[in-house]
Design goal:
Helices cover about 35% and strands about 20% of the residues. With about 425 residues, the protein is of the alpha+beta class. Strands 1, 2, 3, 4, 5, 6, 14, 15 and 16 form a nine-stranded mixed sheet that branches. Strands 7, 9, 10, 12 and 13 form a five-stranded antiparallel sheet that branches.
């Protein structure tokens, strides 16, 4: 068989696989509700594994449920890998995570179609509980693989109903026995690529089909607890109040100001807030809220953290309340491997696809993988930049473009030169 210089994937086949997987956990509004380690997640895994086996891949499942599907190469060298996740947010979309897994499968199918045998093996990964919407920590499976978390730690984690990760993995048939990857003192990858919808508006706004991802913003998440004094809304004069919600509202504005001061890449979000006692005629006595800071370098995160501490001290004195600030999660800023980034850029150029360098505002499994082996990412646009939402959408031509770039980048890294 004459092999094309720039082999291309079959978009009809890839699109059908995406739509078939989206049927498992489909919502009335066209989204997908497939939380990690639920029965629906098990069904999704079973379907994807069946496709892996049909494509001739050897499938292994590790101790925390990560799935690895390998196509052999000519040489006994480290594999070139790709992948993502298939668990979703409570009301997520069809493409977040799912695209990265099935793009990897389509790469393998295309290599099979064209009878191309790469020098390095090709591996497709399905990482466990990337979203963290049912169990913490987020990026659970890739974190164990990379040695960030211990398997024992994550297997003991519980959801809001008290159900345990280990038991839920066993229930869906994905509790493996072996600890794979650098976290298990095993070999990693020659290179790892992850294809993903951008989950933001930059590519669509720039009218470009491909984002060459150079790294990911560092993240620091906090829980803030403000303790004031509950009191009757009528008899208590304004100047004698210890209003926890007033203090919290001032800090919310500070979070926004701090992020704006780190433009253009600083991010600051308060996404969750609980007010107690939450009664119409009672001055709030306690407020607990989250803060999510993001920045492309760790010095920037340190500045944002320090300024938030100062704001807490100022508001504490101004409102006569107590304030605690606790870090609950932290990711250092990531810089992806220059050769992987170059392979993505080269593949886009070979297919005549316009691209731009972009920094990921979200964490992905590639962030943890990049700590132990060379990694890169490929972004494609999503409609209106919306993700983690039932209306999340992407165009078939962008799905196709991103997968063709993935194929080209993996071929570049998987063949000895």
């Amino acid at each position: 068989m004459l092999k094309p210089v720039n082999p291309k994937i079959n978009i009809d086949r890839l699109w059908k696989s995406l739509m078939d997987l989206a049927k498992i956990g489909a919502t009335d509004k066209g989204g997908v509700r497939r939380l990690a380690l639920t029965a629906l997640d098990g069904q999704g895994r079973d379907l994807v594994v069946s496709w892996f086996k049909e494509a001739g891949l050897t499938v292994r499942v590790d101790r925390v449920g990560n799935i690895f599907a390998r196509r052999p190469g000519k040489a006994d060298i480290l594999p070139v890998a790709t992948g993502s996740h298939i668990d979703t947010q409570p009301s997520g979309g069809k493409f977040d995570g799912n695209y990265g897994v099935l793009a990897g499968l389509e790469v393998v199918r295309t290599l099979n179609d064209l009878d191309i045998v790469t020098d390095a093996p090709i591996e497709v990964c399905v990482w466990t509980n990337e979203e963290g919407s049912r169990f913490t920590p987020v990026l659970m499976g890739s974190g164990v693989w990379a040695g960030v978390f211990s398997a024992e730690h994550v297997l003991g984690q519980k959801d809001i109903d008290g159900k345990v990760v280990k038991d839920e993995l066993k229930a869906i048939g994905y509790l493996g026995s072996e600890l794979l990857g650098p976290g298990g003192k095993k070999a990693g990858y020659k290179a790892y690529f992850e294809s993903h919808i951008e989950q933001g508006p930059v590519l669509e706004d720039s009218n470009l089909p491909i984002g060459v991802v150079t790294g990911a913003l560092g993240q620091r998440w906090f829980d803030v607890v403000v303790n004031g004094l509950e009191a009757h809304a009528g008899p208590t004069p304004m100047n004698l109040r210890q209003d926890a919600l007033l203090a919290a509202s001032m800090l919310v504005q500070d979070v926004n100001r701090i992020a704006l001061s780190e433009s253009p890449h600083g991010r600051g979000t308060v996404g969750s807030m609980r007010v107690s006692p939450n009664s119409r005629n009672v001055i709030p006595g306690q407020v607990i809220f989250s803060v999510d800071f993001r920045h492309p370098n760790n010095d920037g995160l340190d500045r944002m953290h320090a300024t938030l501490k100062q704001a807490c001290d100022r508001v504490k004195a101004q409102c006569s309340v107590e304030i605690s600030l606790t870090i609950v999660s932290e990711f250092a800023a990531s810089v992806f491997d220059k050769d992987c980034v170059a392979a993505v850029r080269r593949a886009a150029d070979q297919h005549g696809l316009a691209s731009m360098e972009i920094v990921s505002g979200a964490a992905h499994d590639a962030v943890y993988v990049s700590r132990v082996c060379p990694a890169g990412m490929i972004f494609i646009p999503c409609k209106d930049g919306i993700s983690h939402n039932e209306i999340e959408d992407a165009l078939p031509e962008h799905i196709e473009a991103g997968c063709n770039v993935l194929l080209g980048a993996m071929l570049k890294m998987a063949n000895l030169e």
